[in-house]
Design brief:
single chain; 210 residues; GroEL; 2 domains; three-stranded mixed sheet; 4 helices; 9 strands; BBS10 protein
């Protein structure tokens, strides 16, 4: 329930509504409008490739070495974004914060990015889509992209002054997610209404439990 409702203070209760899909309460790190059905990739770590293995020190002795290392990182990041583009991946959903080089090439290749998702949000998206997070770097940096989620729409949503992300997923299970936009004059009223609704849903679950 916490991931399927958004409280919006400062508006009358009558402005409350139910929206298909889910609402992520953060803005796009990169937004590239795309029409029609598209693919989304879930990641849980930064996509900027590491120069060394964990626990190994990387020493730069000159400006030339530093520039060469940065060019290598940029080439690897660009190659990944090209692969995403060729697989029709237009949305990156990340629990990690991505670095500027990733955002730059995402914009260049038409990939929208939403970062810093909570573990609960990532788990909900995985449950809806049946897709597990992708690990692009490691021993095999060219691992095939096989698990992508089908997204029916992806667009910005403005809730008073807060910019959010509104996404519709093609669900692989009977669960068809909808998000409750709960409006009220102040936070306290919204919290009361949210608690009452959550209790009502819990009661309905118990009534219809087989």
């Amino acid at each position: 329930f916490p991931e399927l409702h958004a409280a919006v203070p400062g508006l009358p209760l009558a402005r409350s509504r139910v929206l298909p899909g889910i609402v992520l309460r953060r803005d796009f790190a990169a937004y590239c409008p795309a029409d029609g059905e598209l693919r989304a990739l879930l990641v849980t770590e930064p996509l900027r490739p590491a120069l060394t293995a964990p626990g190994v020190e990387f020493v730069v002795d000159s400006e030339g070495q530093y520039q060469a290392a940065f060019r290598w990182i940029a080439r690897r990041t660009e190659a990944l974004m090209k692969r995403l583009q060729s697989n029709n991946v237009k949305l990156l959903l990340s629990s990690a914060k991505q670095e500027e080089v990733v955002i730059y090439y995402a914009k260049l290749y038409g990939v929208s990015v939403v970062e810093c998702l909570s573990s609960e949000e990532m788990a909900l998206i995985s449950e809806i889509t049946g897709v597990s997070p992708y690990t692009p770097f490691g021993d095999n940096t060219d691992r095939e992209i096989t698990e992508t989620a089908v997204v029916t729409f992806c667009q910005p949503l403005l809730l008073v002054s807060k910019r959010c992300v509104h996404i519709g997923f093609s669900s692989v299970c009977a669960f068809q997610p909808h998000c409750l936009i709960l409006c009220g004059p102040v936070d306290g009223v919204n919290e009361q209404h949210a608690a009452a609704l959550q209790e009502a849903f819990t009661m309905l679950q118990q009534v219809f439990k087989t």
